[in-house]
Write a structure and sequence with these properties.
This protein has 13 helices and eleven strands. It is an alpha/beta fold. The protein folds into three domains: 1-47; 61-317, Rossmann fold, CATH 3.40.50.720; 336-435, no CATH class. Keywords: Oxidoreductase.
């Protein structure tokens, strides 16, 4: 091959065409980036507007009746008391009529609250509940059914008996179907509402909660399809997804008891393969979850109240993760080699990595935006987290992740050998450096409290991360 004018002309044409195409690609990348930024900002602004706007309730509350399952504790108990205080006729469903929750409702609520004994897994109980409502409702309008009853479990799939899977599905998913179907004739007549208390596990299956996530995914799918089916009857369906609140599901002693019962059902080979340290670490996780769970139920209760009686309720109210960007991040985890669970330590690979959320920081000013977070009731709309992951192995060092409202927006440009080298990020450097004590390669205990860390609403979360080198 030798140089020639035709070859030069052809080569010039090819290079020119390539450069033209690259110019379009560059513009396309810029447009896509601008669209992504616009979408993210819109997501944040809408969430801010929705949560700052006053919530207005429907008129005629004293003429409405609501049926709630799972009222012996947690959300159901507090919701029944709130609705009763507003003058709504409340049918508080629970399994044990002499439970602490039932006695509390009888002692503190008005005669407009009715205790209804119901096990959502039993057809007869549900049928009797419908008969009781029809008999006692009088001229009130049956406005809503709230599917709040639920149970939880913790543990790997292999270590959990099948009966636990069956019980979770029967209570959390099929119980919701059973109760909703029974009350649909009354709801169609009143053009009322169906409210389902789900979970963020209905969007993402966290390790150790696969069985629970199955039931909540089923509940979410049921509500999603039912919403479309009931549109022709003007009956609306709403889902509220709380995450990490102090209820019976996150109770430390109950979780450890269930773990022990499941562990004892395993055969000897399974117990030997996993080893006693595995069970010990899982019990530590159960205690950690209990410590992380927020004590105030105000945020999810506000969302549930809005779903029942609000003039303009949302179809899905997250009570923790809010909006499209946060939903996408849950799906993004596997693609960027880590999953943010906020629930469990990684047990199988604990020697390969350690990830701890050190501190909550703020986008512009710690003081200013922490106030904003307080105004919007701990919804984390404009707060972000600095996550430092320590990487062991041939490439030792640290990686910084920064989340804005649950969305990954900043990552350090590689592994840095010392924690102090992360100080290039000015918003994080002050608080990160204030938390680090002792050797530069040591991270604080994830359960340790520090004077610069706010309680509860800025509680330390575990990041279940796996970094592939």
């Amino acid at each position: 091959m030798r140089y020639s004018v035709p070859l030069w002309a052809a080569s010039t044409l090819v290079v020119f065409a390539t450069l033209v195409l690259l110019s379009y690609v560059t513009a396309l990348v810029l447009y896509v980036g601008a669209a992504a930024i616009a979408g993210f900002l819109s997501d944040q602004l809408i969430k801010l507007a929705v949560n700052l706007a006053p919530r207005r309730l429907l008129p005629g509350l004293r003429e409405r009746a609501v049926f709630i399952t799972g009222c012996s504790s947690g959300f159901g108990l507090q919701l029944a008391k709130r609705l009763d205080a507003l003058g709504v006729t409340v049918y508080a469903g629970l399994r044990k009529p002499h439970s602490t929750g039932a006695l509390e409702l009888k002692a503190t609520c008005s005669n407009n609250l009715h205790i209804v004994v119901i096990d959502v897994t039993k057809d007869e109980d549900v049928e009797n509940a419908v008969k009781y409502v029809n008999k006692t409702i009088g001229d009130k309008v049956f406005w809503a059914v709230v599917n709040n009853a639920g149970v939880s479990a913790l543990g790997d799939v292999e270590l959990t008996p099948f009966s636990v899977f069956s019980h979770l599905m029967e209570t959390n998913a099929l119980g919701c179907v059973r109760v909703t179907k029974a009350f649909l004739p009354l709801l169609r007549e009143s053009k009322g509402r169906v409210v389902c208390v789900g979970s963020i596990s209905g969007l993402f299956a966290f390790p150790g909660l696969t069985h629970y996530a199955m039931s909540k995914h089923a509940l979410t799918a049921f509500a999603d399809g039912l919403r479309r089916e009931l549109r022709k009857w003007s009956v609306s369906v709403h889902v509220v997804d709380p995450h990490m609140y102090q209820t019976g599901m996150t109770n430390e002693m109950s979780s450890i008891k269930r773990l022990k019962e499941n562990w004892e059902t395993c055969n000897e080979k399974t117990l030997t393969d996993y080893g006693p340290d595995f069970f010990k670490k899982y019990t530590e996780n159960a205690r950690y979850i209990a410590r992380l769970s927020r004590g105030s139920l105000a945020v999810p209760l506000d969302d549930i109240m809005d779903a029942i009686l609000g003039e303009t309720p949302q179809v899905v109210a997250d009570a923790y993760f809010g909006g499209l960007c946060d939903f996408v991040v849950l799906r993004l985890g596997d693609g960027v080699c880590f999953v943010s669970t906020g629930v469990c330590h990684s047990i199988s690979s604990v020697d390969d990595w350690r990830g701890f959320l050190l501190v909550r920081s703020s986008l512009l000013s710690c003081d200013l935006l922490d106030l904003v977070v307080g105004w919007i009731k701990d919804r984390f709309l404009w707060s972000h987290y600095c996550i430092v992951v320590e990487v062991a192995g041939p490439k030792k060092g640290f990686i910084l992740f920064v989340f804005l409202s649950g969305t990954l927006v900043v990552v350090s440009p590689g592994i840095v050998p010392r924690l102090q080298d992360i100080a290039w990020y000015p918003m994080a450097s002050k608080r990160v450096s204030s938390l680090v004590q002792g050797e530069s390669t040591q991270l604080p205990n994830p359960s340790a409290r520090h004077k610069d860390v706010e309680p509860i609403d800025a509680a330390l979360f575990t990041i279940c991360s796996k970094i592939s080198m």
